[in-house]
Structure formats: structure tokens, C-alpha cells
Amino acid sequence: MFATNIKRVLKGGFLNFWRNGVVSLSSILVMVIALFIIGSGILISAFLNATVEDLQKKVDVNVYLLADATEAEAITLQKSIEVLPEVSFVEYVPKEQVLLDFRARHENDQLTLQALDEVGENPFGSILNVKAVSPSQYGSVQDFLEGDYALAYGDKSIIDRTNYNKNRIAIEKLSNILDGARKFGIILTVTLVAVSIIITFNTIRLAIYISREEISVMRLVGARDFYIRGPFVMEGILYGFIAALITVALFYPITIWITNGSQKIYNGINLFQYYVENFNQIFVIIVVSGIALGAISSFLAVRKYLKI
Fold it and tell me: Is residue 135 domain-shared with residue 282, that is, in the same domain?
């Protein structure tokens, strides 16, 4: 008996779908818009996260060591910084490389290079480029460098200076921007999902409104709620599934177009590549969202006419 009712519900859902061709088409198109909003939220979130990571990679604190500091002392200090939970990694730049970099930067400044040659020996010390897990943690790293724990041997400090205070305002501003970007991404995604749910629900409710008299008649003759509601829920599932397939297909050319346009002004995330690499996840999210939106919206819309 149960299997028979399931078959009747499925058959009723397909019949309603094909019988109300114009209504079904309009419902699918509206759901495509709703699912496109959800998919756009995924891509926008990926874009913001990639931008945040790109900005974080460009922020660091340079620790300039004394010229007479040995390589062993520099490596000891490097290891003591690397164990900090706030630190992502530390790059050691030996004094010889620092000298070469300086010469490369001033290759067109003959006076500077001549003055450097007159010194006779390498006046530069090694450099430690410190990258924190988050820009907001550079303050803690600086406190460590200024404390006794940063001493290489005994009470001898090999640190000449850092550029933290020089970059402090920029780091703090960047930290605020990144926090704001993350919050904006969350708020935008939640808002887009809420809008898509409202759009879908109102559209399917309007589609079911056309069948309100049919529902009333079935109710009067004693049809069970499951048998009345089932075909409409199935119809909503079909709306969602077909709309999801259309939405997934639309994102393919759209991400190509966006990528071709954005690469000229921003060399960060490649949205088309991200879409292709994460296609399975995006496909599942959009399809499940479409089916869930269609089923839940239909379930709630029919509820009104069942007078439960």
C-alpha cells in the first residue's frame, strides 16, 4: 500500500509538472535566479578569501641583525621565533645576500655603490623576514623580539632593529580591512541565501495557488495529507533539480567571462579554475539547495490550503 501511494505521488508530481507547463517554466526560471544567487555567494566568498590570503602574504616584519652577528647566532634566533604560535614561518637572509640585494637595488646609483666600495667590508647584517599567522599578531611577535627571550646567547642581543613600528599603522589598517572583509563575506552570503529562499517560496506558493480548488476538493473527499501534499512536493523537487542543472551550466561561461575580464586588473584567484577544481562540491551544493528549496517551499505552501 505504501509503495502504491509513493508511485501515485511521484506520478502526480510529474503530471502536475508537465500539465502546468507555463507555471513550471516560470518557477524554474525564478529558482535559477535563486540558485544563481547562492552559487554567486560561494564564488564571492572564494574571491574574498583568496584576496585576504594574497594580502596577508604581502605583510611581514623584517628583523635586522647586527653586522657582527654570526650565522649560528642568527639561526638560533630564527628557531626561537619559529616556535611562536603566532608565527607562520621565518625566512633567513644571510648578510651576503643582503649586500647583493642592496647592490641590485642601487645599480644606477654610482655614488652609493662607490661609497659602499670604500667601506671595504660588508656593513650589513643578516635579516629575518617574519610572517605571522594573522596581521593582528605582529604586535605579539614584536613584544617577543623586544624581550629577554629573543637574546641569542646569554644577555647579548643580536637584533639591531625591526621595521614593525614603521609599518605598524599599515599593518593595523590591513588587519581591520581583513576582518571587515570576512564579516562582509559572511553577511553577504547569509543575505543572498535568505533572499533566494524568499523568492523561491513566494514563486512556488503562487504556482500552488492555481491548484487551490483541486486541493480543497481532495481534502473534502477525505484524501490524506500525504497524498495531497506529496505531488506538489515532488513537483517542487523537479523545479529545484532542473533549475540546479541550468544554474551549474550557466556558471561555466560566466566564470570564463569574469576571469578574462578580471585578469587584466587583478592577478589573484582564477574563478574559472576554482569553479572547475571545485565543481563536484559546487554541483552538490547547488543541486541539494535546489531540491531542498523546492521541497520545503512546496511543503509549506500546501500547508495553508490543508488548514492544518
Answer: no
